[in-house]
Amino acid sequence: MSNVNTVFSIADSYFIVANTTFNKSRVWISNSFSNLTVRWYLHVYVEDSEGTPIPAADVRVKDNENGTYDENFTTDSNGYVRWIVIKEYWRNNDTIIYYTPYNITVNYSDLTFINNPRDTDMNVSKTEVFTATTPVPEFDSIFIPLIITITLIILFMKNNKIKQKRRKRK
Q1: What does the alpha-carbon distance between residue 166 and residue 168 come to, in Å, rounded to a whole number?
Q2: Do residues 65 and 101 make contact, with C-beta atoms less than 8 angstroms apart?
Q3: First to last CA, the chain
C-alpha cells in the first residue's frame, strides 16, 4: 500500500515520463502488471577545435547496460543531433532494469575528438559536446589551388598536343 510520502502511486497501469525530476525512492507500484519508464533527452554537439560546428558528422549512441539501444545519427547544419529519447530505467513493483550509461561515438573524416568514444549517465537531459583536436580543413583553402594547378597542366598539355599535330600536318 502506498504511504503519505509517495510521489507516484501506480496501480494497474503504466507511466512513461520524460525530462521529469522526482524522488525515485518515493515511487510505489502495486503489482508486476504496472510499470514506470523514465526517459531523458540527449543532444550531441560536434565542433572543430576552433568551435565551428561540424555538419554531417556520424554519431552513434548505444546503451552499455543491456545492448537494446543502438542508433546512428548525422549532425545537422549547426553541428547538432537533438532530442534523442534515451531510457534511464524501467521498473515494476519488484524489478528495475537500468539502460544507462550510454556510449556515444563521433566520427567525421579523419578527425580525432577529445574523449571519444565516451560513456554518459542518462539520469537527466543533457548536451554532450565533442570537440575535434584540429580544425576542419576548408575545402577552398586546400583543394582549389590544387585543382586549378592540375587543370592548367592538363590544358597546357592538350594545347601542346594540338600544336604538335598542326606542325606534323604542315
Answers
A1: 5
A2: yes
A3: 108
pLDDT by residue, tens only, the chain of 170 residues? 444 555 656 666 777 888 888 877 788 787 777 888 999 999 999 999 999 999 999 999 998 877 789 899 999 999 999 999 999 999 888 888 999 999 999 999 889 999 999 999 999 999 999 999 887 666 555 565 666 677 777 777 777 766 676 667 66
d(CA 129, CA 139): 24
Q: Which CATH superfamily is domain 8-136 in?
A: Immunoglobulins (2.60.40.10)
Contacts 24+ apart (CB under 8 A), 96-99: 97/66, 98/65, 99/63, 99/65, 99/66, 99/68, 99/69
Task: Please report, for the chain, the start and end positions of each structural domain, with discontinuous segments joined by +.
Answer: 8-136, 138-170
Q: Which residue is listed with cell 592540375?
A: 150
Angle (CA) 50-51-52 rounded to 5° is 95
- Measure the CA–CA gap between 122 and 53, rounded to whole angstroms: 24
Residue with cell 524501467: 90
Nine-digit cell string for 100: 544507462
Identify the H or E element spanning 147. helix 139-169
